[in-house]
Design a protein that fits this description.
By secondary structure, this protein is of the alpha+beta class. About 20% of the residues lie in helices and about 25% in strands. The chain has a single domain, classed as q2cbj1_9rhob like domain (Jelly Rolls, Sandwich), CATH 2.60.120.
């Protein structure tokens, strides 16, 4: 039985997001946690090799964004191409889906940096068909540990791509600078926040004594290509065809 209801589908259409609490099995949650530890160790090794504490928007012992590494962690693809992700895709972008991008977002204890209001589409820099983001809580999420906030379409009045400003210091791109708070995802580990690539979202600082981890997978209804290029941008791995999974671990 699907975890996604007609109410979820309507909320995604009207507000740009919905939340599935306790959607991930205990086994898959364990895979997500083990994979995060594995990939952070690999990130540290790469920082050491390069002689730096900062790669793109990852900062050692502060904030990690580890992208397009799902094949490097044991069993992580089982989650990426799971039936749960397939259900989400069918309910949001339809019966054709490609894995566009994946990344861990981890904020270190008492040092995790905040992340600015942005649309995921704001990081592409060219017009494209909107895609869906699945932000999975690997740990229990709270205001104190910097959980994600999502801005409903009806609150901000924006459901199209806007220009984003690049912050040289952090690597962030930001597209909203107002005071609206959005909706905080105060959810237990194993919950999934699902939102459009056009939905504004942000996250706060982790002020707790434990690391705060989330795993993000993004799926597009068609292969996204940069203008003038023939190959896929980022991943472009076929996942659903006519609603059926064609990529699965």
């Amino acid at each position: 039985m699907s975890q996604i209801t007609d109410e979820h589908r309507a909320q995604f259409r009207d507000e740009g997001y919905f939340i599935l609490e306790n959607a991930v099995s205990a086994e898959q949650l364990g895979i997500l946690r083990d994979s995060c530890n594995c990939l952070i160790e690999a990130m540290h090794a790469e920082m050491d090799r390069l002689g730096t504490d900062h790669i793109h928007i990852s900062h050692r012992d502060k904030r990690y964004h580890i992208a397009k590494q799902y094949e490097q962690a044991p069993r992580l693809s089982e989650f990426v191409f799971s039936e749960l992700m397939a259900e989400i895709c069918r309910a949001t972008i339809g019966d054709t889906a490609f894995l566009f991008y994946d990344q861990y977002v981890a904020k270190a204890a008492e040092q995790g940096m905040a992340f600015s209001w942005h649309q995921d589409s704001g990081y592409l820099g060219f017009p494209h068909t909107p895609y869906v983001t699945c932000w999975t809580a690997v740990d229990d999420m709270s205001l104190a540990n910097g959980t994600a906030h999502v801005m409903p379409f009806s609150h901000i009045g924006i459901r199209t791509l806007v220009e984003h400003v690049h912050d040289e210091a952090t690597g962030d791109r930001a597209g909203y600078f107002g005071e609206l708070p959005g909706v905080p995802a105060i959810v237990p580990a194993g919950s999934v926040v699902v939102f459009s690539s056009l939905s504004f979202h942000r996250s706060g600082q982790n002020t707790t004594d434990k690391m705060r981890r989330a795993y993000v997978t993004q799926y597009s209804p068609e292969i996204i290509r940069r203008p003038g290029e023939t190959g896929p941008m980022h991943l472009g791995v076929p996942f659903l065809e006519n609603g059926r999974r064609i990529s699965a671990a």
